[in-house]
Write a structure and sequence with these properties.
Blueprint (H helix, E strand, L loop, with lengths): L15 E2 L3 H41 L6 H15 L1 H6 L15 H36 L12 H27 L2 E2 L1
Antiparallel strand pairs: 1-2
Helix pairs in contact: 1-2, 1-5, 2-5, 4-5
Length: about 180
């Protein structure tokens, strides 16, 4: 149980202040993430509306709903992956804080940097595979197996863009301690 801010999250919710490439990219990502959050919220509301319509039309009118589930899934995939960089920027991903209180502030900064490095390696691989899947789906003209048959490149591209933004965000967070930029 935690009471109050955790040591590794004290000032991590604001954009980096200062000059330099890392601080400028961090500020640019903050603007981009703010725009994405608005569209992700709209996508979530749209997915809820689509699924509600699907349930009501099927229950009341026995209407076929061959497109609703996939449309909602595509919206949810987009909202989930496109907002990953925003969540990382605010250090909102699930973390294990068992060692935070036991380590010194310097050790915690090193731990956080090493975790970010490991996360970047995993996310970099995931990003590469997402772009590979998107390219294959686009070139091969892959579509889903439903009657609606939307192109599978849509969710794969959303995954790839979201993971790319996440990797850039992690790279910026890894670089900030070395550039002298301070988080506000």
């Amino acid at each position: 149980m935690s009471h109050g801010p955790l040591p590794d999250r004290d000032d991590a919710t604001d954009v980096a202040a200062g000059k330099g490439l890392a601080a400028a990219v961090d500020r640019g990502l903050a603007i981009c993430n703010s725009i994405i959050i608005v569209f992700a919220a709209i996508a979530l509301v749209a997915a809820c509306a689509i699924l509600s319509y699907s349930v009501l039309s099927r229950a009341l009118f026995k209407a076929a709903n061959y497109w609703q589930d996939e449309a909602a899934v595509f919206l949810l995939v987009g909202a989930t992956f496109m907002t990953a960089a925003y969540v990382q920027q605010h250090r909102g991903h699930i973390g294990i804080e068992a060692f935070v209180g036991l380590l010194s502030p310097l050790a915690n900064r090193i731990r956080l940097w090493l975790v970010d490095l490991a996360t970047l390696l995993f996310c970099g691989f995931f990003t590469w595979k997402s772009w590979t899947l998107a390219h294959e789906a686009y070139v091969d003209g892959q579509v889903s197996n439903s009657m609606w048959s939307p192109p599978l490149a849509i969710p794969y591209v959303l995954m790839a863009i979201g993971m790319s933004l996440l990797c850039i965000q992690i790279l910026v967070q890894l670089a900030l301690p070395f550039t002298g930029a301070q988080r506000r």
